[in-house]
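Researcher: Please translate sequence to structure tokens.
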Amino acid sequence: MKNKYLIIMLIMLSLLAASCSNSEKKQAKAKKSTTTKKANDVYEPGKPMSWGHDQTIYVFVDDDVWKESEYYVRYALERPFFTVQNEKLFEVKRGDVKALDQFYKYKNLLFICDLSSNKPVATSVKKMMNKEMENYVESKGSGLFAKHNHWANEQFVVFMIGSNINNLAEFYKRNGNELFFHYRQKFVQRIAHKHDKLKPVDQKLFDKFPFTMQVPENYILYKSDPEGRFISFIWRSREDQKLNPDKYISIYYEPMPKKQNKVIEQEWVKATRKKIAWDYYDEDEIVDEDVQYGLYKFLDYPTWYMSGRWQNSKYFIGGTFQSFGFFDESTKIAYLIDTSVYFPQGDKLKFLMELESIAHSFKAKEVKK
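Model: Translation complete:
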């Protein structure tokens, strides 16, 4: 591996969605509008539940477009995460438009369309578009339109459309990060929806901290250090620990009353993660070449993200981690939410995503005036 940082500058845009009426079935009209997490989680009466694998994305695209776009689509959606052996969050499979009726209830669908074409996928997409989408593509030349619960509840459908083949190609080459984080965000939201049904830990555990988090009750307190501004929870199986992972979620904070810039510094995130890993995880370490960095949006905060491998020379073990560093302007406090997994026997990425869904329940306490 090259001895340099792999920096991924990711700007995560708000997911786009609109409600789909009960009469909208196979030719349902998609709309482009902003949405919130609550809107994404609403189940629409009269619609069936989606099915299929959470991590499989079926792509519908005409042959000529796929020939040119396949590399870029797979590069965006099947990107590796730095775990112990590296893992992919999503698998891309091509769907057959002739059998589209069989896919209307699958969880993740992607339509890539050249509007100037009259080939099968383009023809089908044109029938699904509404006037707003048509006007947008005509005006901008291309666009990405995302739809929650399009034909089924907990389904996520994305339309990537260009007014012609050149505009489409320019768009999918330029917007791979946005496409990936739409699907990633939906994946995390599905997990969060399941966690919403679980009873959280006693919120009194956060009395001495300027924030709260809805950590499920089946996690136990690992360490609490109010003076050190750190708290951590662990999930560990009570049965066969060899067949189940250890999952950690921790929060560290640091007051920064003089800070003016709302974006936390990358170096602070990097240094803070190294410090808490050594101090609180019994001398865990990370090597820079095993870490990915990126800047994106987390809970409406501009956030430095880092992900990669950790190791512990003291115990000859290792695993994977994800950290989110951000600054809350209203309280002038910087936060680092850290998640990590130890699971030598199996894949770790899905557990990191589970921990990320818990991290989304973070809430800074209001400033007392």
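Researcher: Any highlights?
Model: Residues 15 and 36 are 8 Å apart (CA to CA).
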